[in-house]
Specification:
Blueprint: E1 9-14, H1 22-33, E2 37-40, H2 47-56, E3 61-66, H3 71-75, H4 78-84, E4 90-95, H5 104-113, E5 118-121, H6 126-136, H7 141-150
Parallel strand pairs: 1-2, 1-3, 3-4, 4-5
């Protein structure tokens, strides 16, 4: 990278026993194209793997995907583990988060209460999530543009 801005590091993975890989592959490509350094943990990722990766890569955000409807069970306690490790990172969760999910606002509220900064459904455009990530990381327009140019 030739510019003065370093890419922001994000951890990405599919939590729990979920083996859906397509969504995180699309997210990884979109985030990389937007200039982020992406550490993709892949599928069937345990909470401690997210925590370990965030710590070892000095990540600024942990992005959790789940499409099989059991995200609540899989994510329970994740923020306690992040806190115990002394990490202060943004956390996003997205996908088909609950079996039979009919009221996404209720699902959002549940995950916000669990400590997630942003909650997305499976229909969210990756660019929307990236724009929110830039906003939450307080990237200036100049920095975001530089990341895109140099990335």
């Amino acid at each position: 990278m030739t510019g003065k801005y370093m890419p922001r590091t994000v951890i990405l993975g599919v939590i729990g026993s979920d083996a859906h890989v397509v969504g995180i592959t699309i997210l990884e490509q979109a985030l990389s194209a937007a200039g982020f350094e992406v550490i993709n943990l892949g599928v069937q990722t345990a909470q401690d793997e997210f925590v370990s990766a965030a710590k070892s890569h000095d990540a600024e955000a942990v992005l959790v995907s789940s499409l099989y409807g059991h995200a609540r069970q899989d994510c329970e306690g994740l923020h306690d583990e992040l806190d115990d490790a002394g990490l202060d990172v943004l956390t996003y969760v997205g996908g088909n988060l609950a079996v039979g999910q009919s009221d996404f606002e209720e699902t959002q509220a549940t995950f916000r209460q669990m400590g997630f900064d942003r909650v997305f459904d499976a229909e969210t455009d990756p660019e929307e999530a990236i724009e929110m990530l830039r906003e939450d990381l307080q990237l200036t327009t100049t920095e975001a543009e530089q990341i895109r140019v140099d990335g």
